[in-house]
Structure formats: structure tokens, C-alpha cells
Amino acid sequence: MRKPSSPFLASIYEQMLVLRYAMSTIEAYLYWIRFYIRYHGLVHPAELAEAEVGQFLTFLADERHVSAKTQAQALNALVFLYKRVLDRPFALQLAFRPSQRAPKLPSVLTPREVAALLAALPVHLQLPAQLLYGSGLRLMEAMRLRVQDVDVQYLSLMIWNGKGGKHRRVTLASELLPALQQQVAQVRHYYQADLQNPEYAGVWLPDALARKYPAAPHEFGWHYLFAASHLSRDPYSGKLRRHHLDASVLQKAVRQAARQLQLGKVVSCHTLRHSFATHLLARGADIRTVQEQLGHSDVRTTQIYTHVLQQGANGVRSPLSDLRLDLPE
């Protein structure tokens, strides 16, 4: 994302960069801070307090009908603004109306629809999409895979610092091994060329890892599996690096393929993860196993997929099925 033109928002952007916030988090927080300022008629946040914050959060619930998750994200952005930027942390409790909008049931594709969607994608984007479905990955988990995270011997992928900072091992379809070998060969080609560039600073690593393993940024195994096709400047340090594939490229391709196929469903990259979970449960997989594969902290989050299975709500047979009705076919 580009640095905001507003000096105030630009200073927040710079502060979040220093604190190593993810770019997606920076973009989301700036969106909510900007929305909050506009909602209050462009009054500077320093002149507003908890009452105005509560009013804004209630507006999101009552007028915008946002989900509880979205409202929580807006709250987190404002907590950052007042605590980190304005040095005025909130009181222990804010007065606002929590969002009551129930979470949506996940959009799920049939196995045939998944196969058609994957085939309709550009060839160079099929493998990351296949991992979203075949291993139940979140989009950024796939984008951030390193070459050494692929365990061919045990047919698994290592996911580090997933949602909530958790690590997990997930299944890997053996059918993807040839494509993965080709992908690794492509990354090695980039790697060998990059090493010839005197400006190349190696791949980005979290600060703690970079300090512990100072040679790691130039080691092949740490490089991204789905590497970008060009070098770029690290926005945090200004160093020349090869980042991972831009997630928006895959997002746009999946949406375009879904429109092309006229599936009649809302389809995104996350739909492939939803479909992975639902299809595993439909095949009889234990819900605790699916929970571990998805990296859910609470099994209740995983249970939502039981509501979209073909046999209906928790396998209950409809009494209508016992009636002999002359219904049109």
C-alpha cells in the first residue's frame, strides 16, 4: 500500500512500520481510523474521547450492521490509535452496543466445482490454489510458505505463526509433488540469479529469527515457495529483497474464474478452505482432526461446517421424506 497523503495518517503508517505490523493490518487500521475521523466531521481524534469511540462502534453495529468480527477490528484500530499514537489508553470498559449480526454460513463448493475452478485458473496460480483446498490453508499461510516448509517424506506442510501465532502441521496431497518440484526449481532459478546481485539482502525474516540465524536470509530453504517474479524494496528497511507473490493476484484470479464458470455462489480464496473442511467431514473425518488441520483454537469454530453438509442439519432426516407426495421432479 502507498503511504497516506495526510501527515497524521502518514505518521501512524510510519509508526506501524517500525512496530513491524503486517501490511494487511496497517491497511485495515488506517481504514478504520480514517472512517472514525470522517464520522466525527474531521475532528482530530485528540479532541475526542471514549464517548465518541463508543458512539462510532455503536453506529457500525446499528447502521452499518457489521459483524462482531468487523466491529472488533475497528475497536482494535482505535485502541492502537489512542494507546500508541495519542498516548491516551482507554478506560477498562467502553460503552457501546456490540454487533448482534450472526456469522454467515460458509460458502462451499462441491468437489466437481472445486475441480472446475482450479482448472480455470492460470497455470502459474493453480498450485497455490490447490494447496488452499488440498491442505485447508488460509491465503496468507500459502503465500508465506518457505521452501523448507514442504516435508516430502511425511507428505505435510509446516505452517508457522498462523492465526493467533500458532504453528501446525497439515496434510499434503501426494498428487502435488511434481508441481511442487517444478515450483522449487523456479525459486532456485530466481535464487541463483539474486545471489549475483550485490544489492540483494536476502529474504525477509522476522527480527528474532534474523538475529538467531544471521546467515539464514541468504540460505535457499528460507526463501518463499511462491516467490514474486521481481525484486523489490523492503518497506520496513529499504533493502532489496524478493518477496512472496502478492496475495491479491490469486484473489483476483479466483474471483474471475468463478465468474467465468457462473457458479452462482460467492467464491473467494477462503471458499477453498471452507470446502476442504466440509469435504473432510462429509468423508467421515473426526471433527477434532479437522480442527487441528484448520488451526482452530475452539472446536465450535469448526462445527459450523457440519451445517452445510449434504445430509442436512446434523444429519436429521426430514419427515417430508416419509410422505408419499406427488411432487414435481
From TrEMBL:
Protein's UniProt keywords contain Glycoprotein: no
Keyword flag DNA-binding: yes
InterPro entries per UniProt: CB, DNA_brk_join_enz, Integrase-like_cat_sf, Integrase_catalytic, Integrase_integron-type, Integrase_recombinase_N, Integrase_SAM-like_N, Tyrosine_recombinase_XerCD
Residue ranges constituting the Core-binding (CB) domain according to the UniProt record: 4-86
Keywords linked to the UniProt accession: DNA integration, DNA recombination, DNA-binding
Pfam family, one: Phage_int_SAM_4
Domain Tyr recombinase as annotated: residue spans: 104-318
UniProt similarity note: Belongs to the 'phage' integrase family.
Protein name as catalogued: Integron integrase IntIA
